[in-house]
Amino acid sequence: MENRRTDRTAEMETFLAVACAGSFSGAARESGLTPSAVSRLVSRIEQRLGVQLVVRTTRSLRLTREGEDYALAARRILADLNETETAIADRGSPKGLVRVSAAVAHGRLYIVPLIPEFLARYPDITVDMHLSDEVSDVEGGHIDVAIRFGPLPDSLLSARRLGETGRSVVASPEYLKKHGYPREPQDLVNHNCMDFSFKRIEPGWPFWVDGEEIMLPVDGNAHANNGETLVQLALQGVGITRLGDFHIGPELSSGRLVSLLDDYNPGDTEAIHAVFIGGKTMPARVRVFIDYLLEKMEGPGTL
Fold first, then answer.
1. Residue range 138-146: mean pLDDT, rounded
2. CB 128 within 8 A of CB 111
3. Packing angle between helix 35-49 and helix 24-31, nearest 10 degrees?
4. Which residues in 8-18 are b (16+ Cβ under 10 Å) and which e?
5. Which of helix, strand or coil describes residue 164?
6. In whole angstroms, how far apart are CA 209 and each of 80, 184, 185, 213, 215?
7. Exposed site from 3, 64, 135, 289, fewest CB < 10 Å?
């Protein structure tokens, strides 16, 4: 049985060489066989299947419809086999490139500090960090692991929960001295409210008013595609912003930023997930990175 499987694999590889070269002689050069050996191999496949795969002429050959179907299936089978063997081989010593996307502040404060230990543990893996608060393309294969906040849209991606973060409305003492304190959420319509420039699932800022949660649209003359820029703008007294608590912990502790409307804070949290393409053929280098993040970060704790 083992020899038969090995022969089938060799047959598929040789048949694909014939399909690509368009001749037995070209496939023979590619495969290291004689043209007559290639011809006999194709005939053997045709005899076993009971169909004609190749139309032969004195000058060239072409695949029949059945030949095209066989070539398509052979490519898929050989690709799956190679991918599976690579994934299994990597389990002993994971290696290769892992592309990781994270929000700017969260990546700088929580993900990047974990990288040195991971690289020491897996010296054959290279980590390529992409820091941006915009959503990265995992499904398209451009990123292996993305750290995402908030509700996850329906998709075919896999996700593992790493934690969660609360959110607060903040401004600098200088801004509040000049423009006054908002005493209730509706007062924000008279303030410069700075938000993210990219589209988010929530269409405004949520508040708890009269026993129910409301969504308040906000507007201002400054926006940014990352939280760190919004923090800096708030520190400079440009306006009011609402951010994950991991962005602003040190600034709140030092008094450089002031938390606002705490009585109306709905206490909402954003879940933090590692998002990736899962499945049995997920590369070992990606799997061990996910496991490492879970080891270091997993839990219900709030950042």
1. 82
2. no
3. 110
4. eeebbebbbbb
5. strand
6. 56, 9, 8, 6, 10
7. 3
Q: Is the pLDDT of residue 301 over 70?
A: no
Q: What is the structure's pLDDT at 138?
A: 80
Stated length of the chain = 303
Q: Please tell me the distance from the alpha carbon of residue 290 to that of residue 296, in angstroms, as a whole number.
A: 10
Chain centre distance of CA 200: 17
First-to-final CA distance of the chain: 56
Exposed e or buried b per residue across 52-69, where buried means at least 16 C-beta atoms within 10 angstroms of its C-beta: ebbeeeeeebebeeebee
pTM: predicted TM-score of the whole model, two decimal places: 0.57
Q: What is the pLDDT of the chain when averaged over all its residues? A: 87
Per the CB < 8 A criterion, the answer to whether 269 and 162 are in contact is no
Which of the four pLDDT bands, split at 50, 70 and 90, describes residue 202? Answer: low
d(C-alpha 53, C-alpha 64), whole Å: 5
What is the arithmetic mean of pLDDT over 25-42?
A: 89
